[in-house]
Amino acid sequence: MISAYWRSTRSPLYSFLFTIPLFLIYEIGIFLTAKDNMLVLRNGADALMRQVLENFGIIGLHGIGAIFLAGFGVVFFMQRKYWRDAEVHGDYLLLMMGESLIWAVGLYYFMSNVYVLFMNPTGQVLVQQVTLAVGAGIYEELFFRVLLIAGVAAILGFVFQWSDKMKRWMAMAIAAGIFSAFHFLGEYADYFSFDVFLIRFFAGLALGSLYFIRGFGITAWSHALYDLIVLTQTTTQT
């Protein structure tokens, strides 16, 4: 059973089903806080993604969400033959939640006592900050792990003719550096600190490794749960 769980839950199908709650929580949070003029995610990943979408005429708080669903729709169509024969186990989804929590706690202790949220929270109220934490989990992982690693790996493979494993791991390291640097860009960014840059870089390596090992869904939930753990820690201490 363990091998079947490990293999099945890395698939795009389980990632899609598992991240639907994150997506809904985020979109509902955006809807509830939009009246307070909250701008989706206040970080470099969201700013870049929204800017790219605006260049194609897609403007608004929910444009990225629409692209997210459309992207999974494309994957679903391309792999429909595989998914037609796939069996969805509800208990696997529950196990994935528990596994994500374990990875999140592990990441929390890996980061030691340095409470660095990956999302640059700027929300005025707790609902906004929770929304930002959830959004950071799903959209930062979508951009920095799924899209960026694939894009950089394709470039490295074309230029250097490296093996598949070599180009993917090098792409993951480059994506981790970009992931860290982007938190210092934009109007709501942190002031640059090399120590904080290194912390987020190593966190990016950890999340990238988790993405390779366990897939997008568990990585997104682990990222979101980590941010929620840190948010709870910092909120209860103030």
TrEMBL record:
One of its GO terms (molecular function) is endopeptidase activity. Keywords: Membrane, Transmembrane, Transmembrane helix. InterPro entries: Rce1/LyrA-like_dom. The keyword Heme does not apply. Pfam families: Rce1-like (PF02517). The keyword ATP-binding does not apply. Residues 125-229 form the CAAX prenyl protease 2/Lysostaphin resistance protein A-like domain. Signal peptide: none annotated. GO terms for biological process: CAAX-box protein maturation. The chain crosses the membrane at residues 12-34, 56-78, 90-111, 142-162, 169-185, 191-213. This is CAAX prenyl protease 2/Lysostaphin resistance protein A-like domain-containing protein. The lineage of its organism: unclassified sequences, metagenomes, ecological metagenomes.
